[in-house]
Structures are given as structure tokens and as C-alpha cells.
Amino acid sequence: MPTNPENKAYMKTEGDINLTEGRTQWWAEHIDETSRAYLQEDEDVFLHQTLSTPCLNVLSSCKGIYVQDAQGRKIMDFHGNNVHQLGFGHPAVIEAMKQQLDELSFCTRRYTNLPAIELATKLTELTGGALSRVLFAPGATSAMGMALKLARAVTGRYKTLSMWGAFHGASLDAISVGGEGAFRRGLGPLLPGAEHVIPFNSYRCVFGCQDEAHSLCLKPIEYVLEQDGEIGAVVIETIRNTDVQIPPVPYYQKLRELCDKHGALLIVDETATAFGRTGTMFAYQHYGITPDMIVLGKGLGGGIFPMAALLVKEELNQAQTMSIGHYTHEKSPVGASAGLATLRVIEEENLLEQANYLAGILKQRLQEMMEKYLIIGDIRQLGLLAAVELVADRTTKEPAVAEAERVMYACLARGLNFKVSKGNVLTLSPPLIITEAELNEALDILEKSIAEL
């Protein structure tokens, strides 16, 4: 497959590396001529961008925990862009959408519809009523934009504080508060007032925190809030999804205190972690806090329909004179039906309990691997979200980038797909519907592939 050498500066970013000899070798060994032709057509017609051009392979179908490529190979998907809490093509979601298509396929502006009202009500109930106002959007990037606009409207402040390395969407406003180089580089000037600090990192803490609360990690946030005095909102991923950074409980409790002290709203981005991924419906529920706003997306549409939401506290309902969202598909009855079906399945099939049970198995298996293989420098996990960080040396913590790529392709050859973050972190996000046997099969594949190193 043709590659553009000029793009290689962007290779070590959030996604797996798609312009290396490893990728070329993978294509040679596993992609037939028909798929190669499709991949070339894709490259010829789509705008090129890092992380997705050229593509890895061509998919033909998906069902349950599996995707299937054009050559008929079934692959367990532990990536899924984090939309697949219910796996792919869950029959309850599809049936709900089919029924809705026959009844009301679109809701014209100025009108509402029962599925949208019911979904909004259900989401507020899942927060215990702490966040009682909702707006829908076609995607979480747009929901983040709504949150930023509402924060300005309510506080009268345009400045935000967020984390380097974070991802909050791909639009211009979202990349301004986001901190990933692949999305920001070369696109300035971005939104004024979007301030950033060094993020929490339990394994590579630049502050050398010795206490369990990682209290020094909060010092930059506290300093900026105090010195600036005009920060309207702190924007943060509750748990950094890609390389799975899980702050301790005191971190968030102190962050909540700092926001209250300095008049800043706390916006948590749960796009990738909501709806049971971490063992609770929302990840912030692990921390005993209530954010001022939550951004939701990805899995809300059941892995089928693009659906996102912004949930906010009652006292933030102060923007009646402006349009915060106003998207064409804002109150999509089909999307709302998909969301309602998704939440019903999670409850009726006890998927939170399932996630917590399987999380114990996942934890034990990964810890056993770490004891056996020195290349594993760290394991980070909450619920069915885990990171396996590969290092060349446990003392220096030098990232094992080439080895991570080899493990990824070895796993793909055996039927397991996952995301590689930061070049050396294997990120595992299995669907919540996965069985114990399937989880163990996937972990067997992972261990075999690591053992080969």
C-alpha cells in the first residue's frame, strides 16, 4: 500500500501506528487482492488524515463482540470506538429503531416527541436527579461545544482549564480544550482562553507524588485557578480512556472543592466511559462527587445510531435567550429510541453486575501476566476498561513501542482487536455482553502474543 513519508511525524500519537514496516508486513501476509483494491479505493476517495489513512482492513459485518473482515475472518473487538457496550447489532436496539422508523422517523424543529422526552428523563434519573436538564446532539463533539457555550453564558467567563493529552472531540472548539497534538497541531489560532495543565498520570507522574491521593498533581490546577481568577470551567475526562488514567478518589473530591472555591464549573467528559464501562453507569459515580455538567456520547446510541447528550444541574438552566445546541437531529426520535433500548438492555441484562464480575477475572489474568513478563510495566484497570503498558525496562520505563506494535498484529492474526495508545499502551475495552469464556479466550490470545516477545 502507498504511504506518505511526510506524515510520519504524526505516527506516535493516540492511535496505532499505520505507516510502519509492521503495517506493510501485515498487509502482505493477511490482506488479499480484493481487500487491497478496496483499501486503495478508500485512500483515493477520502481526505487523508493521520490515524486513519491508510486504513488497516475492510469490514463486512459485525455482531455481538465480533467484527468480520471482507475475507470472512471473525475478530473479537476490544476497541469498538467505545460505542459497543452492548456489542454490535443488539437485537433490542435494532427492533426499537425499526418500530420508531415506522411511527416517527424525524422530528421537525419546534416540535418534540415522546422518545426524546423519555430518554432525557431516564438520563436525569440515572444521576439521581442531581443533573436534571438535558440537551441532545448528533455527536459528543457537538455536546462538548454546547457545554462550553453554556459555561460562558452562565459564568460570564470565556476561559477554560483542561489537560494536555486529553481528547474532547475534533471540532475547532473541542480541540481547543483538548490537548492531543494530532488534532491541534498547525490549526491555530484556537479558542482564546483555553488554558492547559499537565494531566494526572499514575505511572509516569512528573511531580513524583508519593502520597496515594497524588496531591501534587492538583497543584498546577490550583495555581492556575488562583492566579488567573477568570476560569469559567474545568474540563476533564473523568477517566482518561485511551491510556486509562484513573485518578484516586481524593483527587476528584479536591478538584470539586477547587472549582467551587474559584467559581469554575466542573465539566466531566464521559463520552467513552459512561454506560457501564467502568462498572458504574457513569464513571464519576466512583468518586462521590457531582459534576456541574456531563458530556455523553458513543455508546448512548447502542453502537448503531450517532447520539450524544449534555446533562447539567438545574441552576444552569439560564440560557433561554440563546441557542446552545439547535441541531437538526437534536431530538431524533430514532436516536432516542436507540438510547432508551440501550439503557433497558443494560438494566434488564444486569450488565453492570456482569462488568464488575468479569472485571475481577480481567484483573487477575493481567496481574498474572505482569508477574511473568517483564515487558509489562504497569496495569491500570477499572471495570472492563484496562491498559497494559509495555516498557523496555521497568526501571527507566522506556516505552516499548515496536514491541507493542508486534503484539497488536500478533493478536489481530489470532482474532483479537484493540487500540494502541501513546505508542506502547494496549487498551482493552471489551463489550459488556462478553461471556467469561470469551474474555478468557481473548486474554489467552493476548498472553500468547506477549510471550512471543
Automatic annotation (TrEMBL):
The UniProt record lists the keyword rRNA-binding: no
Keywords of this entry: Aminotransferase, Pyridoxal phosphate, Transferase
Pfam families in UniProt: Aminotran_3 (PF00202)
One GO MF term: transaminase activity
InterPro entries reported for this sequence: Aminotrans_3 (IPR005814), PyrdxlP-dep_Trfase (IPR015424), PyrdxlP-dep_Trfase_major (IPR015421), PyrdxlP-dep_Trfase_small (IPR015422)
Family designation: Belongs to the class-III pyridoxal-phosphate-dependent aminotransferase family.
PANTHER family: AMINOTRANSFERASE (PTHR43094), AMINOTRANSFERASE CLASS-III (PTHR43094:SF1)
Name of the featured protein: Aspartate aminotransferase family protein
